[in-house]
Amino acid sequence: MKSSKDRIISVIIYIFLIVGAVVMLFPFYWMISGSFKTLQEIQSLKIVWWPDEMQWSNYTKVLSMPSNPFGIYFKNSIIVSSANTIFTLATTILAAFAFSRLSFKGRDKLFSILLATMMVPSQMYLVTNFITITKMGLYDTLWAQILPYSASVFYIYLLRQFFMQIPDQFYLASKVDGINDWKYLWKIMVPNSKSSLVTIGLLNFITSWNAYLWPMMVTGNINKRVLSIGLHYFTGDAGSEYQLMMAGATIVVLPLIVIYLVFQKYIIQGIARGGLKG
Questions:
Q1: What is the per-residue pLDDT across 30-60, written as a single tens digit (0 to 9) for each?
Q2: In angstroms, how far is CA 14 from the centroid of its own chain?
Q3: d(CA 189, CA 99)
Q4: How many helices (H) and strands (E) does the chain have?
Q5: Nearest 10 degrees: CA dihedral of 52, 56, 57, 63?
Q6: DSSP helix/strand/coil, 121
Q7: In this predicted model, what pLDDT tens digit does every residue of 207-251 receive, in sequence order?
């Protein structure tokens, strides 16, 4: 049974957690509520916590602006983020299996070199990637936003750690039964790694969805832009119409919030089981 001192400590901890949650969630609440307000309510000296009448027309205006077509941006973001996630999962699965189960000369040294590249800031690759994409004739295409980031050393490391937790006896038994490496990967390794794969897929999708600098560099056509760029240009188009800015920001952020809330447990399980816990 808890003593009075333990109860007091527990109450203090819960108070801090509640205050921290409120501080973290308040900007999202203010953004979403602001997207339904009128300009007068946002600029009012008296704080308006929730609009008297929800202005759904703010979203209609945002999605119908001819100079900044959010509908096209939304479609492009879904295509780029989904394709990037699929390619990343494919390269991650194959590389993690090779580094965890296959034996070849220089395997550990090669993996160490790959890990060392994680110390290099991603901005250092921008110029070389841009030159490569331009020479391939992919500038101003969706492929230019997909291909350069279709592999991640961090995700390979994360999945490799999980693959190494699967007993070697399974692999040896599959060899006795005449199962080749390809079948073993997709019949044994992948089904037993669902939590890690879901985690990698979600984190990669969120990262790709929020990408701004690289899509900005490789696109010039308005029909090839994604939401993150559209939101940047939208602030100039909307001027001082803050309610439209809030609606645009909500369109960008809300899908990620929903995805995270739905798959939160998979993200936590994947990271914990992948060897990064504690």
A1: 888 888 888 888 888 788 888 888 888 888 8
A2: 30
A3: 13
A4: 14, 0
A5: 150
A6: coil
A7: 899 888 899 889 888 888 888 887 776 665 555 678 888 888 888
Listed residue (38, 31, 39, 43) closest to 54, CA to CA: 38
| Angstrom distance (rounded) from CA 200 to CA 186 | 17
Instruction: Tell the residue number behind the tokens 């693959």, with chain if given.
Output: 163
pTM of the model: 0.80
Q: What angle do CA 62, 42, 73 make, to 5 degrees?
A: 20
Query: Which amino acid is it at 210?
Result: N
Structure tokens at 141: 């295409």
For 245, the token pair is 């800015």
User: Residue 28 has which token pair?
Assistant: 């999202």
- Amino acid identity, position 111: F
Could you tell me the two tokens for 36?
């339904």
Distance (Å, whole) CA 212 – CA 207: 10
Nearest to 54 by CA among 28, 33, 40: 33
First to last CA, the chain: 28
Token representation of residue 168: 């070697």
